[in-house]
Amino acid sequence: MMTATHLQDRTELHNGVKMPWFGIGVFKVEEGPELVNAVKTAIAHGYRSIDTAAIYGNEEGVGEGIRQGLQEAGISREDLFVTSKVWNEDLGYEETIAAYEKSLSKLGLDQLDLFLIHWPVEGRYKEAWRALETLYEAGRVKAIGVSNFQIHHLEDLMKDAKIKPMVNQVECHPRLTQKELQSFCRAHGIQLEAWSPLMQGQLLDHHLLKDIAKKHGKTAAQVILRWDLQNGVITIPKSTKAHRIAENADIFDFELTNEEMAQIDALNENTRVGPDPDNFDF
């Protein structure tokens, strides 16, 4: 499995757009200086991918962090990969296009690198997907994809889609390894991306992960993030603390053995910390 050897390494999506293997997520980080600093710090540390969503209510702060971060790092907007997502109440053709423009305006950007349907709301995601295809074909967005889609959602979407999703961002960590979904996505050229890769901190004291970490002179968090990359999964750990932002990204100077990868895979229990994509009511 080809894996990233540097924080700025990218994988090529099926439409030729290159997306960083590693990025920062800002779920539940409220507007304010902490958020702006987190984004700015990530860019200063060499992160080139930033993931937000309309429902996080923090696109303005993310945009501010991006502007300050670009200026301080002396890099251009083209060097960054920015993702946002359309929320459930906006899943309709016109509504989704309007939601895209609203996200752009809050972020202060001309276009997004990736726009995702946040959840597979039954009976509504196909119209939203048609809107994403329209935005994509008009050159308004570089790549389009989905989030929290199971295999049957993807099959259903692709029956009518002109363009298949480039990315599927799902909950993925050693307790929810998503192997079947991963195989399905790989077979269809859809890049899998992990949200909540550290299971919201619940795995950081796990004895196996700590043992493996010790062998490599790393932390359990770094081992999990490395496991993602070696599985060919894009990962976007969330943190607002500068030392943690730096630590999370310090995973390119070691490699997990096949045995260690298998041991981590074996921790799977199909346990979620987030909602079940087949059973949610929002």
Automatic annotation (TrEMBL):
Stored InterPro entries: AKR, AKR5G, Aldo/ket_reductase_CS, NAD(P)_OxRdtase_dom_sf, NADP_OxRdtase_dom
PANTHER family per the UniProt record, alphabetical: 2,5-DIKETO-D-GLUCONIC ACID REDUCTASE (PTHR43827:SF1)
Stretches assigned to the NADP-dependent oxidoreductase domain: 33-269
Organism: Bacillus sonorensis
Catalytic activity, EC: 1.1.1.346
A Pfam match: Aldo_ket_red
Root EC class: oxidoreductase
Keywords in alphabetical order: Oxidoreductase
Lineage of the organism: Bacteria, Bacillati, Bacillota, Bacilli, Bacillales
GO molecular function (one): oxidoreductase activity
Record protein name field: 2,5-didehydrogluconate reductase (2-dehydro-L-gulonate-forming)
